[in-house]
Amino acid sequence: MRLDAERLRVDGRERPLGVDRPTPRLSWEWTGERRGTKFRLEVFAGAGERLWTSPWESPGPAFLGYAGPALAPRSRYRWRVGFRTADQRWASAPAEFATGLMAGLPSARWISTREELALGGGDPVGPRQVSGPPAPRRPHRPVPEFTCRFDLERLDPSSLYVLRATALGAIDLRVNDQPVSAEILAPGWTHPAHTLPCQSVDVTSLLRRGGNEISVRVGDGWTVGNLCWFGTKHYSPIRAVLVQLDRLGAAGAQVLLGTDARWSARETGIRSADLQDGCTLVLPERERRLEVITVVPPIASPTGQLAPPIVPIQRFPARTLTRVGEELVIDFGQNISGRERVRLRGQRGDTVRIY
């Protein structure tokens, strides 16, 4: 069996769409016989021209840092591992990646709501100095949903449509009412003054000709919600979101839309969403319009996501159900970090508590 390379990855991820490091690490897994074989990496630009070829090497550690010409922002690339022996040459199956903003600024603007700014105390957005007693607990705020409706005259079959999103808070991002990925609690827990991860998701299959809709709900997350002994609003007094839709084609990148004051917002039935205090949901949801405003938070420029996303990895069915007074104790068999999925039947006005 001759030597081959599988599971080609860039900075630890397969087919990433938001690579922001100028010298990403290209890695893979060896399969087959290495004896007498040399390898090299080949990177190609979106139009197909060869951008960089590494020197021939003997198989060793299955990774190599990119050392070619500067990568362009918001661009597509292909790469592969080439091999040779004394009498033949071959190459692995190609892999693809796309760059993100590459230290540039997004075309979109940060948005929040006028009501959010008032509830946040009108303070400037940014991490506060942690000293003295923790911040007082504040009343929980309903989760807002930001929405943008737009038309696409055509979908280019040779292009990728990449949705980029980040937030001060934790977001649930949807296109045409479908989740863009299995990731939850994005952009995760970081210090936004230093690092602000940005999701880059291929939403080509979720878009359609004609009318489309992007919606994003933003909860408190680690940025605004209760954070252990630090209290609330540790990094920011308000929640805000940044969303941009790019089309990546052979001719380059095109910004199709981004968050701005023309987006609409409403108050959802999620009356609170805190990582420590839990979530309160009121059904049916009521429609209350909110005023969208643009904000300029003094935080880090969004960068491509490096850490693995938080995603569900396993489901546990209930093992036992025990009635204790008016409570129902459900045992799943082990301690987990997760969420319950329940089906309820009741009357309007009923209250159900899960804890």
Q: What can you tell me about this protein's structure?
A:
This protein is globular. The protein has 355 residues and is mainly beta. A hairpin with a 4-residue loop joins strand 6 and strand 7. The chain contains two helices and 25 strands. A six-stranded antiparallel beta sheet has the order 13-12-15-10-18-21.
Helical fraction equals under 10%
How much is the average pLDDT?
A: 90
Number of strands: 25
Strand line-up of the largest beta sheet: 13-12-15-10-18-21
Shape: globular
Number of helix segments? 2
Q: Which structural class fits the helix and strand makeup?
A: mainly beta
Low-confidence stretches: 124-132
Radius of gyration (Å): 24 Å
Instruction: Give the topology string: H per helix, E per strand.
Output: EEEEEEEEEHEEEEEEHEEEEEEEEEE
Summarize the biggest pleated sheet.
6 strands, antiparallel
Q: Strand fraction band?
A: 35-45%
Task: Note the gap between the termini.
Answer: 55 Å
